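Researcher: Quick test of sequence recovery. Tokens follow.
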């Protein structure tokens, strides 16, 4: 899956996630009133994720990337430090509502030889989950990282877009054109703002996301670039897969899509988790696509599905230079997202 194409000619580039990182930003589950009985189990699952990303060697040195972990309140700071001491994590006291930094943190871009942090408005996924402090996370992370920030006065969440590193972007109409985000902006307006702000010159518009996804169809739950010109998505699993029709439509749409250089995409599929329900019998938006691509490790969320092993194996084939690890995410997803949703990479320059 190597590619020798040069980035589209533009001043700003949002790197592909597989490109080298200097750090990953995330957060520690900190609020018992949000997580309830899932607080400690969720902490255990995100700690396992963070340790996998750090990839500490036998001498205690991280081979992967530096962990920048926000924690809110004295108890959470102490808990995070105790859990992640062996991973060399930098635990940063901060004020935030919840851990979904893919959507609340800035999106890091390259500007020539420099790094920039692009900040957007955040409105709680269309006003559904407005928590104190979340709208200030982007500015806080930008300042703490000492990366020059650009502030945009419109709503965008990092999980709603996925870049190939050359100027092509995956997204969904269900999210970016939803009137609960930017009701006065047209599709053309949004495309222009993504060109100007993130260097995304070609948008591939998909339709709907997963059933019961409160993000209104974030693309990182349904399709991901895994290399320039190569996109991964899910095949339905089982006759009762609640996303069967949507997933089939996504595959069909991607097979006729082209990137910023006019190339048809190579489409790689992996099995969906299928029908995953919570204790009340409600469908959970569980996704094999919500993996994180670290410097040395790809971490895939598992939900106890019959297809878990097959999904990890298929994803591993796409990243032969990295270790691919499947880790349980059943308690994390009770908060509404999974591993990719809580991570935001800072590229190396």
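Model:
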């Amino acid at each position: 899956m190597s590619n020798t194409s040069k980035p589209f000619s533009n001043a700003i580039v949002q790197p592909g996630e597989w490109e080298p990182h200097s750090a990953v930003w995330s957060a520690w589950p900190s609020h018992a009133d949000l997580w309830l009985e899932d607080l400690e189990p969720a902490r255990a699952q995100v700690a396992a994720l963070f340790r996998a990303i750090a990839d500490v060697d036998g001498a205690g040195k991280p081979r992967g990337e530096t962990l920048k972990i926000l924690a809110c309140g004295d108890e959470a700071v102490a808990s995070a430090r105790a859990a992640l001491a062996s991973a060399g994590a930098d635990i940063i006291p901060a004020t935030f509502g919840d851990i979904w930094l893919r959507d609340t943190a800035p999106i890091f871009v390259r500007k020539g030889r420099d790094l920039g942090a692009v900040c957007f408005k955040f409105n709680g996924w269309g006003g559904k989950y407005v928590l104190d402090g979340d709208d200030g996370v982007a500015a806080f992370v930008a300042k703490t990282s000492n990366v020059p920030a650009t502030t945009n006065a419109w709503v965008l969440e990092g999980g709603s877009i996925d870049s190939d590193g050359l100027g092509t972007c995956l997204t969904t109409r269900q999210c970016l054109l939803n009137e609960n985000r930017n009701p006065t902006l047209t599709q053309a307006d949004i495309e222009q703002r993504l060109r100007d702000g993130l260097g995304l010159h070609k948008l591939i518009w998909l339709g709907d996301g997963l059933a019961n996804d409160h993000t209104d169809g974030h693309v990182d739950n349904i399709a991901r670039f895994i290399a320039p010109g190569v996109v991964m998505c899910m095949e339905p699993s089982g006759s009762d897969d609640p996303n069967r029709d949507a997933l089939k439509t996504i595959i069909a749409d991607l097979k006729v899509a082209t990137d910023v250089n006019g190339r048809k995409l190579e489409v790689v599929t992996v099995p969906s988790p299928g029908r995953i329900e919570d204790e009340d019998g409600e469908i959970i938006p569980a996704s094999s696509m919500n993996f994180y691509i670290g410097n040395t490790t790809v971490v895939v969320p598992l939900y106890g599905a019959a297809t878990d092993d097959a999904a990890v194996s298929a994803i591993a084939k796409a990243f032969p230079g990295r270790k691919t690890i499947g880790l349980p995410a059943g308690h994390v997803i009770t908060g509404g997202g999974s591993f990719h949703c809580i991570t935001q990479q800072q590229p190396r320059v």
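Confidence is low (pLDDT under 50) at residues 1-10.
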